[in-house]
Design a protein that fits this description.
The complex is a heterodimer of chains A (802) and B (184). With 802 residues, chain A is an alpha+beta fold. Chain A contains 22 helices and 28 strands. The C terminus of chain B is likely disordered. The chains are: A alpha+beta (802), B alpha+beta (184).
């Protein structure tokens, strides 16, 4: 029984083929499984009562009116749930002495940010729960709030500064240092800076990474069903496996009694890489009442209390020789954790620590980061997680160095970057970059952009005193992807490994079930993973079914983040396919009455060398199912499982060029052209890769120009709706010119490097460099992000005056 | 409670509803039309867009009682053969275009984006890129950067055009990308 004649797609052509996505049909016809679609009989609905204050003691909660409202089952406070709600864990304490406040899902006696949950209303309908939430009367005794990052970092009980958690006595959670002289990966940066001050160039800058909100389109939602032998949790999460483990570890419910399912998940971008108070509270309430429980946040709740991203102050010192060769980089960082140390929150700036030296051959480097607690929403991973911040800093600095030298920014980069014949290259931060070709990517981008023509136009418009000036921004980025080698994570004190698991089940009908521990939320795993398996097994693309996101179906996994799905999860799958072929070979030899050494496998068929005889892999699958006749000493089956642990990160890179027009009279910035050439290694599906780049670009551009989570002086989030938090629309943007080159990664057999975060990491500095480039003749050397018309106009006024 | 009677995706329905019930809640919770989704609470994102008497509306911004007597079309009833399109039936040309041009990733904004596109093209069958971008301004997408959504609208415009070539050029979705096998 074979199906190969039905779908004659040449399997060897699957890699690099722009297959249309398998997952589209249900999404474009509305036959979706969002968590909020799930309705179970007798479901109890939750509404959260949240603190309006950034920092306050809870002195009393009067729940009587709410409890008596129609259709309300109960109103529960943190005290009511204290014994069962568990805690929210920090999985990455970055130092042994990290100061970590305890994070209870529902606050018990004190709230530490506006939006923290203080009570849960349980009702027979969502509307009844929301109505009753308004009737819960909470008495607060307001406390001084630590809000501004730099002020909070300097505050002590002695100097009277506000402390986010008074019982801890400090806002400073941890200090993490990397020094190339101590690590033996380079020289002493202070020596390099001293030498440059004596004879050379020293560039000193402070950059602010504003606070952003991931703003995935699907609000978070959770349904918990405690009926039956296992407690089933459906959640709009990126991390069903990690959440299940931590839920078990912190509530005492055995892991084997929890089934975690991430059904269709509407985007994440790191924002759903979290274990949330809402999931933990829903779990506790469901157990308490023995009934299904459901909670779906409103957008306003999401913006206020789902974790935020970025939020750093970067103090940078770059030393260079007079001819523009960089001799050292010193980074002093403050990172705002918000009110709690989130799942990997403290680790986000540490991920950036290895990327400040980017694609360059710096001989000396020091990174000194302090993580700081404040009374704002907690921060954690957001697309790029630490790497955009690092890339922004160094790419801005390289432009500043070029401006200081009066030279073209691309020329200064060329002088300092690793050349293609120097790979593998061990950097001053201790990473070994395995492959890349910065020269070729840049040459292609320069050509596609029309760089020289745009520079000529810029000169003309400057000469003519055009009120609308042209700016050109450069960003030559790299990133560490494919998180991550487990041993490296262990050395960084991360609480888990970085492997991924895959299983391939050869069904007797010839179809193939693929199980992956990577949990997709829009990336297109079902399509790309089908292509990999079709390629390796020689089966039709259409015959491969990818299963994921349910701990009962895919029991082992570490989920989706850090551009890891293809490089780690995809590789596990490719290796599992190879294992299937290896297991099938003795079956083929037996059925063909040949010596296994004479059997060759190609395009789905096992053939005896030199004869026309063969068996398809589907025929072997059926034979293995029947198991009537097979060699001694092997098991009756050809299914295979693989857990793959990468030996190295992967290092995508690219050259991004952006042209903007800046109206010097209004400060308005208009995107004119954006060209990028990315090297993400081997491309499995160019359509999906281009889509990832487009979306990534826009999130990075939005940081440069529009988005910021703004708090007022009392700690209230002012950008608490999508009318205030400026996620861009189609009307704000242009079409992009994206292209790829490929130097295959050596850390996986696919040669893939990962693409999920590339666009976001690269684009922010490209845009800001373009804005600054446009108005540099006005004496401007920086515009704080987001580069709003008001900030750009003010920079021009201030620059012109000085 | 107020009695409403309306047509949703071709079927006549009648219910008693609270006056404060939003159309999107009525569609999702009472009729099980979960293809239409809720993305915000300020009528900013457009994920809940449906057609009311042939024009696009954000169904979070319409009360169910305001839809009394109206004809509503959701993403589930957009294709010619209505809800049957879900399984393996015919797709609406805009649905087909979104698939062909990879104009969706997570798919959460997609129902609203498709409904808005259908309305846009009904009004202006051959929009320029700028008209497309302006026409979709009320619908937010966080995944695609809109690049391939614009391509999909162009593709649908050409596909449904009686005079091919008069609209914006329909490009396959991936942009100008090329795969270059340069070695390390």
């Amino acid at each position: 029984m074979t199906t190969t004649e039905e779908a004659p797609a040449a399997p060897a052509d699957e890699i690099g083929r722009d297959r249309r996505r398998k997952e589209d049909r249900r999404l474009i016809t509305g036959r979706t499984h969002w968590t909020d679609n799930i309705v179970l009989p007798g479901t109890l609905h939750l509404a959260m009562v949240r603190s309006p204050f950034a920092h306050a003691n809870i002195t009393g909660i009067d729940t009587r009116a709410a409890a008596q409202a129609p259709n309300v089952v109960a109103v529960l406070t943190g005290t009511d749930l204290a014994a069962t709600q568990g805690v929210l864990a920090n999985a990455w304490p970055i130092t042994p002495d990290q100061v970590t406040p305890e994070h209870k899902p529902v606050a018990v006696d004190r709230v530490a940010f506006a939006g923290e949950i203080v009570a849960v209303v349980v009702a027979r309908s969502a509307a009844a729960a929301a109505d009753a939430a308004d009737l819960v009367d909470v008495d607060y005794d307001e406390l001084p709030a630590a809000l501004d990052l730099r002020t909070a970092a300097a505050a002590t009980p002695e100097n009277g500064g506000a402390i986010a958690h008074p019982d801890l006595g400090t806002n400073n959670s941890a200090q993490w240092i990397f020094d190339s002289a101590q690590a033996g990966t380079g020289g002493n940066v202070e020596d390099a800076i001293a030498a440059a001050r004596a004879d050379g160039i020293v560039i000193e800058r402070e950059y602010r990474q504003q606070r952003l909100i991931p703003a995935f389109m699907e609000p978070r939602s959770v349904v918990v069903d405690p009926t039956g032998e296992q407690i089933t949790v459906w959640s709009a999460t990126q991390i069903p496996h990690i959440a299940r483990f931590l839920l078990a570890a912190t509530t005492g419910v055995p892991e084997s009694k929890i089934r975690y399912i991430a059904p269709d998940v509407g985007g994440g971008f790191g924002g759903k890489l979290q274990t949330t108070p809402e999931e933990w509270a829903a779990f506790a309430v469901a157990r308490r009442f023995g009934k299904p429980v459901k909670y779906t946040e409103t957008r306003s709740e999401s913006l206020q209390s789902a974790h935020h991203g970025r939020d750093q102050w970067q103090k940078l010192t770059l030393a260079a020789t007079n001819d523009g060769t960089v001799t050292g980089l010193k980074v002093e960082l403050l990172a705002d954790l918000g009110a709690y140390v989130a799942l990997v929150g403290g680790g986000v700036p540490v991920l950036g620590a290895f990327m400040f030296n980017a694609i360059y051959k710096f001989p000396a480097y020091r990174f000194d980061c302090r993580t700081v607690l404040t009374n704002k929403a907690w921060t954690d991973a957001y697309r790029g997680a630490g790497r955009p911040e690092a890339t922004f800093a160094i790419e801005r600095l390289m432009d500043e160095l070029a401006a200081e030298l009066g030279r073209d920014p691309l020329e200064v980069r060329r002088q300092n970057w690793i050349t293609h014949d120097e790979f593998p290259f061990t950097t001053v931060a201790g990473l070994t970059y395995d492959s890349g070709d910065y020269e070729s990517a840049t040459a292609q981008a320069v050509d596609a952009f029309g760089y020289e023509d745009l520079r000529a136009e810029q000169a003309r418009r400057r000469e003519a005193g055009d009120p609308v000036q042209l700016g050109i921004g450069v960003s030559t980025f790299t990133e560490m992807c494919g998180l991550a080698p487990s041993r490296v994570l262990g050395s960084l004190d991360y609480g888990a490994g970085g492997w991924e698991h895959a299983e391939i089940r050869m069904l007797p009908t010839g179809k193939v079930e693929v199980v992956t521990g990577a949990s997709a939320h829009g990336q297109g795993h079902e399509t790309a993973f089908s292509q990999i398996v079709a390629d390796r097994l020689g089966v039709p693309f259409e015959d491969v079914e990818v299963l994921h996101g349910d701990t009962q179906v895919a029991p082992r996994g570490l989920d989706t983040y850090g551009s890891r799905s293809l490089t780690v999860g995809g590789e596990a799958l490719a290796l599992a396919a190879d294992k299937v072929v290896a297991k099938a070979k003795p079956w083929a030899a037996h059925l063909l009455e040949a010596d296994p050494r004479d059997i060759e496998f190609s395009r789905g068929t096992f053939a005896v060398s030199g004869t026309g005889e063969g068996k398809t892999i589907q025929e072997i699958a059926l034979a293995a199912f029947a198991a009537h006749d097979y060699p001694e000493g092997i098991e009756p089956g050809i299914d295979a499982e693989v857990t793959f642990d990468p030996v190295n990160f992967s290092f995508p890179h690219g050259t991004h060029l952006c042209a903007v027009e800046v109206d010097t009279e209004t400060g308005a910035v208009r995107l004119r052209k954006y060209v990028c050439v990315d090297d993400v290694g081997t491309v499995i599906n160019p359509l999906i890769v281009a889509g990832q780049v487009h979306g990534g670009l826009v999130q990075g551009i939005a940081q440069a120009l529009w988005e910021e989570a703004v708090y007022d002086e009392s700690g209230t989030l002012l950008t608490g709706t999508l009318a205030d938090y400026l996620v861009p629309s189609a009307a704000d943007l242009i079409s992009f010119d994206t292209a790829h080159r490929s130097t295959p990664a050596t850390s996986n057999s696919l040669g893939a490097k990962g693409v999920g975060e590339a666009g976001t990491i690269a684009s922010t500095p490209a845009v800001v460099n373009a804005v600054v480039d446009a108005i540099r003749p006005y004496g401007v050397h920086d515009v704080e992000m987001p580069c709003t018309p008001a900030r750009v106009w003010r920079a021009i006024q201030d620059g012109s005056a000085s | 409670m107020t009695r409403i009677e309306l047509t949703v995706d071709g079927a006549k329905v009648s219910d008693d509803v609270e006056p404060r019930l939003l159309l999107v809640q009525y569609l999702r919770e009472r009729l099980g039309k979960t293809g239409t989704v809720i993305g915000c609470d300020t009528a900013s994102c457009g994920a809940c867009t449906v057609h009311l008497d042939g024009r696009s509306v954000k169904s979070c911004n319409v009360l169910a009682v305001q839809a009394d007597g109206a004809e509503i079309t959701t993403i589930e009833g957009l294709a010619a053969d209505g809800e049957a399109s879900g399984a393996d039936g015919q797709l609406h040309p805009v649905q087909e275009a979104f698939h062909e041009c990879h104009a969706l990733q997570c798919g959460f904004c997609t129902p609203g984006m498709i409904m808005q596109t259908a309305d846009l093209l009904a009004e202006n069958p051959h929009p320029t890129e700028d008209e497309i971008r302006q026409g979709l301004e009320g619908n937010l997408c966080r995944c695609t950067g809109y690049h391939n959504i614009v391509r999909a609208v162009q593709y649908a415009a050409n596909g449904t055009s009686a005079t091919p070539g008069t609209g914006a050029a329909a490009q396959p979705a991936a942009g100008s990308g090329t795969i270059d096998g340069g070695a390390a």
